[in-house]
Design brief:
The complex is a heterodimer of chains A (about 280) and B (about 450). With about 280 residues, chain A is mainly alpha-helical. Chain A contains twelve helices and two strands. Chain A has two domains: about 1-50, no CATH class; about 60-275, MetI-like (MetI-like fold). In chain A, a hairpin with a 2-residue loop joins strand 1 and strand 2. In chain B, helix 9 crosses helix 16 (about 415-430) and helix 13 (about 340-355) packs across helix 14. Classes of the chains: A mainly alpha (about 280), B alpha/beta (about 450).
Chain lengths: ~280, ~450
């Protein structure tokens, strides 16, 4: 049995592998290839070597500015989203009345599309800023904090659900034993709960990190980069490069490859860091 | 096991690399093999979302009359280039697409067939409107449009009857000075006139700012190019000095300071907001073109009568603007895809000719699409009857004025326009002064032509 399984597994894997090939590997390979070419449509391209990569950084400041803005945004939103999500999860595992209602309500923003959320928050933020006679396009800082608020509103509920699952997995015996031994709540939190939810933290930081870094539709709908391109994040900058100029498709593609490499590196480092903190029960 | 996976992945990668080269050769060969198929399909990628439904009906009517299957796909507003880029790479690419002028042609050169021998080109009234390169004709304009300051005559009449009105009829406004006096006087009397501002919001939300960085900027640049005898197809256009920068500021300031909306709040305003303000009678004037009529008439609670909607030229204070008309031109050029089979190219040309010459086709063009078509197959009575199209025709036929052509089709690219729009927004918000705006426009223009 074992043996036949081993023998035939490629055959059974084939449909999935084919789908993976068509929907992922081929486009990915083509994407990398196109980043070394000058092209208008994906089927006719001319090899230009590393020229696109050089132009991504030297043609103008946009890519570097967007990179810096994205990094700042990612740090702030990863910290805030996870903090709020964890606190909410703690609160909603205490047996508060109407817990299920709260969980549903907090989760709901995650079900709304990014573009819709972007416009909704633009209306709300502009409504508030109106008292000072300005709107969100007035300063990149408004755009930045607008995005942070939006990201928190959207992601916190989702992360909260994951943290709740993690918290519920902690054996009751452990916390009870600690309490009997005279540990205070904060000691239990610090030495039992936190280490035990580390697997949830790994997945949550990974999700918030990659989602913040890749943010596009919320950025487009909320500020579209205004003022100037000061609040444009990497994904939006790549999009604008690709479509804004004739002959810059390859440069946009090169930026996308760089974007992928940075994201892969960060995610890899983060995963190995948080993984190492995980404990087994 | 690991080995097998590695091998499969490696094979996949190798396949993907060769796939690219294969695909391109495939399209070439399919061109020849499908060339003789009896039931050829043609595919038109439409540029104007507001008339997408009409094209569906045209496709049905055309299939009934000729049996040729026509697919029409419409790109989202502002997304034509994106859609075209992905559609044209498909196995069944668009056979007819649109380019927006000489700059658009430069990007799609490889795909534009020579249209010199098509019947449609033979019937083009003004051959100079077409996009040519050497001896070839690569884009045929299919509609003539005009823009200026749209005003609500009912409100203007109310103003003329107020005590101390600066002028007594629209005909007296023939220069920026007069326009400014009138507008500022109207702002002072806005309660009396029942408006919130003279001009609709200067929409400066990113992507909604084309009325300024493209249409308004056309005027000073038209004067600059004309005065310096610049050949538009030559290298002379690669740099500009924006010598009429002050005049551009004149009109832009007038829009900002006499508007429904505070200048600092304009970054979130969209064109639709401005048109709604005009339709609801909250303002007396808005800068836009004849295509906006459908937008005005579709607003709920619209208070503007069709016969009150008129065009005024955009005066900026440039010397000799007394006989200036509105801006008339086009950025809609039809092109036929050179990379599809000869048969499909012919079928596409036939369809276009049918649309602009047959009774059924012309009826669609005039009454449903509302196009002012630049072809001699249309008699003077076969013109759209919406008030703004009528106004464009009136201005075209007014002998004593000089209408301004659309030179913005040679503006470098979208990146330039986006930056121009962004700096106008920063000017409106007070974080940049006009010299910085001028500086940005002049340097970005050269940079984008160099890139």
């Amino acid at each position: 049995m074992e043996k036949t399984l081993k023998k035939y597994f490629p055959l059974f894997l084939l449909p999935t592998l084919l789908a993976f090939l068509i929907a992922f590997l081929i486009p990915f390979g083509m994407g990398i290839y196109l980043s070394f070419t000058q092209f208008t449509t994906v089927t006719d391209a001319q090899w230009v070597g590393l020229d696109n990569y050089r132009r991504a950084f030297t043609a103008n400041q946009d890519f570097r500015n967007a990179l810096w803005f994205t990094v700042k945004f990612t740090i702030v939103s990863v910290v805030t989203v996870n903090l709020f999500a964890f606190l909410l999860a703690l609160f909603l595992t205490q047996g508060v009345r109407a817990t299920n209602l709260f969980r549903t309500v907090f989760f709901m923003p995650n079900l709304i599309g990014g573009i819709v959320l972007g416009y909704l928050w633009q209306l709300i933020i502009n409504g508030v800023l109106r008292y000072w006679g300005v709107d969100i396009t007035f300063s990149a800082n408004y755009g930045f904090w607008g995005l942070v608020v939006l990201m928190n509103w959207q992601m916190t509920g989702y992360m909260m659900i994951i943290y709740i699952a993690g918290l519920q997995n902690i054996p009751h015996a452990l916390t009870e034993a600690a309490a009997i031994d005279g540990a205070s709540y904060f000691q239990i939190l610090r030495h039992i709960i936190l280490p035990m939810v580390m697997p949830a933290t790994t997945i949550c930081t990974f999700l918030t990190l990659t989602n913040s870094f890749k943010l596009f539709d919320q950025n487009l709908a909320l500020t579209a980069g205004a003022p100037g391109k000061e609040s444009a994040m990497l994904a939006l900058d790549i999009y604008n490069t690709f479509y804004g100029r004739i002959g810059y498709e390859g440069v946009g593609q090169a930026k996308a490859v760089i974007f992928f490499l940075i994201l892969a590196l960060i995610a890899f480092v983060q995963l190995s860091l948080t993984r190492s903190k995980e404990v087994s029960q | 096991m690991k080995k097998i996976i590695t091998m499969l992945v490696a094979a996949a990668m190798a396949f993907s690399v060769t796939a690219c080269s294969q695909e391109s050769s495939q399209t070439d060969s399919s061109t020849n093999s499908t060339g003789t198929s009896a039931k050829a399909k043609i595919y038109y990628l439409n540029f104007k979302p507001e008339i997408a439904e009409v094209y569906e009906e045209i496709a049905k009517a055309y299939q009934q009359e000729t049996g040729v299957e026509l697919t029409v796909v419409t790109a989202a507003a502002g997304g034509y280039e994106q859609t075209l880029k992905s559609e044209i790479a498909k196995a069944e690419p668009p056979t007819i697409f649109q380019i927006n002028g000489p700059r658009g042609y430069a990007g799609w050169k490889e795909y534009c067939a020579d249209l010199k021998d098509t019947q449609l080109y033979q019937h083009l009234t003004d051959k100079s409107l077409a996009i040519t390169d050497g001896n070839g004709v690569y884009g045929i304009p299919n509609v003539v449009e005009g823009y200026g300051i749209i005003y609500n005559d009912a409100i203007m009449q109310r103003y003329f009857s107020t005590p101390g009105a600066k002028v007594s009829s629209m005909e007296e406004i023939r220069s920026f000075e007069t326009l400014k006096e009138v507008v500022e006087d109207m702002t002072a009397k806005k309660e009396e006139l029942g408006i919130q501002g003279v001009f609709a919001s200067t929409s400066l939300s990113p992507g909604e700012d084309w009325r300024w960085h493209t249409h308004l900027a056309n005027i000073p640049l038209y004067y600059e190019f004309t005065e310096n005898d610049i050949d538009l197809s030559g290298d002379g256009v690669n740099t500009i000095s924006l010598q009429y920068s002050r005049q551009l500021q004149n009109i832009f300031d007038l829009y900002l300071n006499n508007s429904v909306t505070e200048p600092k709040l304009l970054g979130s305003k969209q064109v639709a907001d401005s048109m709604a303000e005009f339709a609801l009678g909250q303002c007396a004037m808005v800068q836009n073109g004849n295509w906006a009529y459908s937008q005005i008439s579709q607003v709920d609670g619209n208070t503007v009568q069709a016969e009150d909607i008129k065009f005024l030229p955009i005066y900026t204070g440039i010397a000799g603007e007394k006989d200036q008309g509105i801006c008339i031109g086009t950025e809609n050029y039809l092109a036929i895809n050179r990379k599809v089979s000869q048969e499909k190219q012919q079928l596409s040309a036939d369809f276009l000719y049918w649309l602009y010459s047959s009774e059924t086709g012309k009826d669609f063009v005039v009454n449903r699409l509302g196009f002012i078509a630049p072809f001699d197959t249309f008699t003077p009575s076969e013109q759209p009857d919406d008030p703004l199209a009528q106004e464009v025709i009136r201005w075209m036929n007014t002998e004593e004025v000089r209408n301004i052509p659309w030179y913005f089709t040679i503006f470098p690219n979208q990146a330039f326009k986006d930056d121009f729009g962004a700096t106008l927004l920063q000017y409106a918000q007070g974080s940049k002064n006009w010299d910085q705006v001028t500086q940005t426009v002049v340097t970005r223009w050269t940079e984008e032509f160099g890139s």
